[in-house]
Amino acid sequence: MLLHHIPGLVTRPQAEWASIRAGQYSVGDCFFSYVFWLAAVPPLAGLLGTTLVGWRIAGGTPVKLTFDSAVQISIVYYVAILVAVFTIGKLIHWMGETYGALQPLGRCVALAAFTATPLFIVGFMQIYPVLWLNFIVGLPALAYTAYLLYTGVPIMMEIPLERGFLFSSSILAVGLVALVGLLAATAVLWGIGLGPSFTN
């Protein structure tokens, strides 16, 4: 299991990135020993939060999803996370040539996977779906994710800091575009009647 890297990513990220690079992990290592486990945290927390707790709008009655609907959404959510990690890793690998950073695909996927660690962990907050609370907790996690990206790229891709900064900015831009695309796809699906089902 690669979960032993989590404390180091929090307390001494640069040293931990060097340790991850030395590990020479394959794509399979990253997914079977790390991503499959941590990526399950947000969907499972969301499943419990939306079916057992629900969310309130302006202090009204809690709004909850039916269990079947929540399970379907959680499965799609989980698959989307897995696809996103691999896709970002593949894009890092593809963009590496532009920045003179040709590295194995496994290392690029590891960079994407370990960078997303704060977002995986903070996903547990979805068990209590209160917008302001999730916002307060989520913003620092998002900021630390960006910090991990900017510290990890030069070490994992073995390039100078200046080039690493440009490479990291490109990765961040791609991630934001992908997020906007995912939100747009969700809105389209809801618009054609594939939205969630709510309890009475």
What can you see in these coordinates?
By secondary structure, this protein is mainly α. It has one domain. 74% of the residues lie in helices and 0% in strands. The chain is built from nine helices and no strands. The protein has helices spanning 5-11, 13-23, 27-38, 41-53, 67-95, 105-115, 117-122, 131-157, 161-191. The radius of gyration is 18 Å and the shape is elongated.
What is this structure's SSE topology?
Elements lengths: L4 H7 L1 H11 L3 H12 L2 H13 L13 H29 L9 H11 L1 H6 L8 H27 L3 H31 L9
Helix pairs in contact: 1-2, 2-8, 3-6, 4-5, 5-6, 5-9, 6-8, 8-9
Give me some keywords for this one.
mainly alpha, 74% helix, 200 residues, 9 helices
Gist of the model:
The chain is mostly helical and 200 residues long. It has one domain.
Radius of gyration, rounded? 18 Å
Rounded to the nearest angstrom, the distance between the terminal CA atoms is 43 Å
Q: What is the number of helical segments per DSSP (H or I, 4+ residues)?
A: 9
Low-confidence stretches: none
User: Proportion of β residues?
Assistant: under 5%
Order of helices and strands: HHHHHHHHH
Structural class: mainly alpha
Domain unit count: 1
* Helix proportion range: over 70%
Mean pLDDT over the full residue set = 90
Largest sheet: none
Shape: elongated
